[in-house]
Amino acid sequence: MEEKIDAGLPAFLSSVYKTSGLKYPKFYKMDLLSKLGFMTSTFLVESGALLKPYDPDKVAIVVSNSESSLETDHNYYNTISEPDHYYPNPALFVYTLPNLLIGEISIKYALKGESTFFVSRQPDFETLCTYCSWLLQNTDTQAVMTGWIDLDPLHNYESILFLIEKQDQPARQENAWPFTSNTMTTLYRAIN
Amino acid sequence: MKSYIAADNMITSLGFSTSENMQNLKAGNGGVQMHTIPELPNGKVPLSLVNEERLEQLFSGLADGNHYTKLEKLAISSIHAASQSTEINLAGPETLFILSTTKGNIELLGSNRPEFGEERQRLWSVAHLVSRFFKNPNPPLVVSNACISGILALLTGQRLISENRYRHIVVTGVDIATHFVVSGFQSFKALSPNPCKPFDSNRDGLSLGEGVGTVLLTSDAALCPNQRLVVRGGASANDANHISGPSRDGEGLFLAIENTIRNTSHSREQIDYISAHGTGTRYNDNMESMAFHRAGLDTVPVNSLKGYFGHTLGAAGILETIVCFQSMRERRLLKTKGCEDYGTAKPINVIQETQSANITHCLKVASGFGGCNAGLLISQDGTF
Amino acid sequence: MEELIKKLKSQIIEELALEEFTPDDINADDPLFGDGLGLDSIDALSLVVVLDRIYGIQIEDPEAGKEILYSIKTIAEHIQKHQS
To answer: Terminus of chain C with fewer CB atoms < 10 Å: N or C?
Structure first.
């Protein structure tokens, strides 16, 4: 039985973009994974408002997923798979690397801090927690955007991002959760 | 906890061990040659490829080659070779495997290989297969971050060791030359029609390569009795400018270098040698020269190894760092193969003749698509 | 020529994902790589592929490419020259 791609995700993300009020035409050039990560990050930081206390050179982005850029890989592959219709598409090829979604977030919010893209079978919040805590404690990183942004070739997707801030920062402590892998796991399960 | 280097291995077009590779590097031999990729519509392309026959032969002593892809054979062979010269228990719970790769088994896409299910297209699947081959109980980590993956994987290893999460970390970087990747770089008009010429005034593009590098990091200095080389740490930083073109003023790489120096509590005067990214494209090499200049490192001897190995993507950061280790051990700076008449936007000190030198601190850098940049500092321990 | 220019405008909007533009927003004489459309180096490469794929025209030389891709009008002129 052939599985069908859910036709809804591209349209859904476009409508999310349009209703967000963001004026960012580059959105349309992104691949689906980057659009997913980009819109998730936009809501996370309230279109940049939450990043105001921080030096953008000191905001890190650490993202993970299980599919890497496989959805885009399939799309790019379609441009080279037929010898009679062979037109490798550079606009697709550039997105056949999962860290491009980090690149797009970094460009939009001018974030020049540390960044890493991990791939694991399941969300590994323990490693993310250790790694992000390390950044906050051992470098001049002031805040970290971290989470799991996953998209498979059939357009099944999961996207969750957390903004991690140090306790002594002038942030939103009343609504804040402690940064532990348990918290991240609990919140992740809540969206599933 | 410090991260010492217990062992390493390289498999490239220039050999199946670090020493074999180094022999070729010292002799000035490069592995970039004209090859034909059947699916490419026209002509040959300069590539640095691993000798497949030799790989099959080597791997046949480890397992049945029919059950593993080329990429997996490279990774497993390399880890096996590296582990022979150390007592580190790869199967222990205090050992973690980290895999650095940009495209993993991408050659399986659209290929008629029913023996490999769709799951093998996933990078985590390759990592699990490799770590389980060595009976390691921990879920492995994959770093997939374009051309800085290798450096990031080493940094991740160093950071996890410093948190005492693991005692030993097997860091392996691997990528193969495929139609997928070659066609993509061709669509970017990024490939030179000839073997690349890093930092040369006539450079006109990069050459792709494949290979694997493995570094065994450990917090246990006693496991590294001879020369004590330490991965001190480093940093990554984004250009936040464009998704494929490097920032004209080298902003991201400059920040990565500055933060590497700061994170490792060093001074720039202590850096004896820089192993650059040096792909041989006009943009990259200019950008690097700007970044080195801004960081006050324009007189530090710098080379690129891409003229020997080509650009090995996810393996590059590991392979080229291993050559840094060897350069430090042997007190030798290798010339930048392909660079005959150097010419970049800002003047830098490109090594054009292989020569002896004492290297106490070495800076390895890389940049990649997505505007990412990274730096790594390696030191001979006992000098602080 | 007018028909071709009209077609090119729609094709460029679609191929380069310029979803917030309509053909009326694009002036055929305006430089494509100015501020108006916000095209970048990847768009230039994409246009080269589009010209090959849709019109069978190959641009090998980047310098020649810059002149051909200057505006919709110059692209249209190049296509007409090569198709006659």
So the answer is: C
What pLDDT digit, counting tens, does each position of C7-53 carry?
Answer: 999 999 999 999 999 999 999 999 999 787 889 999 999 999 999 99
CATH (residue range A8-190): 3.40.47.10
Please say whether the beta carbons of C58 and C52 come within 8 A: yes
Contact B244 C42 (CB under 8 A): yes
Q: What is the pLDDT of residues B223-245, one digit of tens each?
A: 987 778 999 999 999 999 999 98
Give me A4's structure tokens: 């069908």
Of A25, A28, A91, the CB nearest to C46: A91
Cβ distance of A67 and B369 shorter than 8 Å: no
Architecture (CATH level 2) of domain B3-223? 3-Layer(aba) Sandwich (3.40)
Give the architecture-level CATH label for domain C2-83. Orthogonal Bundle (1.10)
User: Tell me, what's the ipTM?
Assistant: 0.97
3-class SS of residue C55: helix
User: Across the interface, do C38 and A26 touch by the CB < 8 Å criterion?
Assistant: yes
Chain B hits for C40, Cβ within 8 Å: 242, 245
Assigned token pair, B147: 């051309």
pTM: 0.97
Q: Which residue from B189, B242, B243 is facing C45, i.e. has the nearest CB?
A: B189
Asked if the Cβ–Cβ distance from B242 to C40 is below 8 Å, we say yes
